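I'm stuck. Please check this protein.
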Amino acid sequence: MLLAGGDLIESFGTPNLWAEADLHRIMGEYGCVIVERTGTDVWGFLLAHDILYEHRRNVFVVKQLIYNDISSTKVRLFVKRNMSIKYLVPDPVMHHIYAHQLYVGGREPLDAAPAKTTPVKAAAEDRD
């Protein structure tokens, strides 16, 4: 399944950004979990977008119960601008981003070396 914020889902409506065949395949074969974002009308967009509406049984929306406008887009921008992400992401994720110099120089490096432990595993280890 595709996991996406409401802001990304709205990009499905941007002309020539997503191929219709790709959207049909993603939504029809895999489905999508959409995390609501402040300022986006996920439900309105789902009704208005023909492909999403056609595959609505494969779409699951996670309601935002607490105001949180932190997004991966903002995290990447903060890193690119040399701003702190200390309280935006878990410490293991922050260390991974900095150790591999991700999102520096305007784009994500394609040849970043893999971490010894994944951020998710590292976060779990920190809780033990």
Q: What stands out?
A: The chain has two domains: 2-62, 70-107.
